[in-house]
Amino acid sequence: MQCTRCGNDRWAVTNTAHGNNRERKALISIVEPSLIWYSNDFRVRARKCKKCGNIGHTIEILMEDLLAIMNHARTDPLPNCESIEGWCEIQNQKHRKS
Question: Within 10 Å of residue 11's Cβ, how many Cβ atoms?
Answer without folding.
Answer: 20
